[in-house]
Amino acid sequence: MVQQAFDKGLEELSKIPDLEPKILSDLYKSTKLDTPIKSPMKPREKPNDPDPLARPRKYPDENKWLWDMSVALEEKIKEAVGPLELYLKAFDKYLPILK
């Protein structure tokens, strides 16, 4: 659920309309007025670090930080759930009563 909220927040961020074409309509006559702002998008798969010696030079994915943040969030959630499972095991002695 937490990961879904993270992804949903990124999705909603990409729906925010860009105000500059609306405010400066004289400068943006050819573009649509309902364009969203440029927002970061989480990569679909783990981005690879390019070889710095390769030619032509390749640059790392600009949204790699979002992938790293998503992985760190998942690790922290798993770390937080561990003590909860131990807490639930404390009630195993009451299972016959509950059944």
By DSSP, the count of extended strands is 0
Instruction: Name the beta content range.
Output: under 5%
SS-derived structural category: mainly alpha
Largest sheet report: none
Order of helices and strands: HHHH
The number of distinct helices, counting runs of at least 4 residues, comes to 4
Mean pLDDT: 84
Termini separation comes to 29 Å
Structure description:
There is one protein chain. It contains four helices and no strands. With 99 residues, it is mainly alpha-helical. The two termini are 29 Å apart. The relative contact order is 0.12.
Features:
99 residues; mainly alpha; elongated
Q: Short description, anyone?
A:
The chain is mainly alpha-helical and 99 residues long. Helix content is 46%, strand content 0%.
SSE topology sketch:
Elements: H1 2-13, H2 20-23, H3 64-89, H4 95-98
